[in-house]
Amino acid sequence: MSAKSPEFDPADGLAAFLKAAGDPLRVQILRVLAQDSFGVMELASLFDVKQSGMSHHLKLLAHAGLVATRREGNSIFYRRALAGASPYAALQESLYRQVDSLACEAPVLARLEQIRSERVISSQAFFNDNSDKFRSQQDLIASYPVYAEQVTEMLQQVIGDARQSALEIGPGEGEFLSVLSPLFEQVWAIDINQAMLDQAAKRVEQEQLANVTLKLVAGENLSQALAGGIDMAVANMVLHHVPSPATVFQSLAQVLRADGSFIVTDLCLHDQNWAREACGDVWLGFDPDELSQWAEASGFSVGKNIYFALRNGFQIQVRQFIKCR
Questions:
Q1: Residue of 158, 228, 268, 281 with fewest CB within 10 Å of its CB?
Q2: Per-residue pLDDT tens digits for 48-59
Q3: pTM
Q4: Which is nearest to 141 in space by CA: 25, 279, 23?
Q5: At 267, phi and psi to the nearest 5?
Q6: In the chain, at which residue ranges do the beta strands (DSSP E only) sit?
């Protein structure tokens, strides 16, 4: 019997896994990547190390299957890999639990907040400059009528009996508020940009949606803007504009009631970099596993899923995430 090639030797793979996990800085990198995706320059800044050094650490983590990558235009972003696909899944899940129990150092937290603030400022600047033509720009990818039927179908399937309050994040021109308003006693619609809220306010006034309240929020920390007990939350084609989508899941985990649903409609991962400049997209869609990872890390389980392709080459995912008890 011929000897196995070293590159397929399970012992070598396990050794690479253990080596990648056996460095304090790499452990902290895994800790940060639990809730967000970052480029190599951002990670180098976070941990105050040279880019070349950070690239070396990320290479070891990627080789061990501990981080996954995604391309955003000319940049590569890193996230923590899902444990389920690993031959060492049980060990990897145990490692993640231990990593997540660690506290981030204060300087890292401060630089993390700075990076997220810069992302928010950039996003706000785009919508301040383009609120009057956002609809036409968004229509280049997917206008509301393209996905309205599927989102409404999902909502009807999962709504249940709890209909006291609903939340829409980033209502745009308010089309979906017309769907939510007759189904819930109280509907909140929030955005980080006043100009965009003004667009939604026109529809609320025209259709006399008396139970809809529009609210400006400072950032992605929704728990500071809303009380708990929300029965349903919806984000239609919003998360790819959000600087830190994982933070949205974290905040919703604090305001949604147990068993409440968060319905996300967004683009699947794509490589159309023009969408950044034309539509203000921060993320070029999402791998479904990426959304699931952020959701599960924040205490959600994955519910129903709908996927469909558009004629222009884009794909849309409509996902239900359920707040665990």
A1: 228
A2: 999 999 999 999
A3: 0.71
A4: 279
A5: -75, 145
A6: 38-39, 67-72, 75-80, 165-169, 186-191, 212-216, 230-236, 256-267, 300-309, 315-323
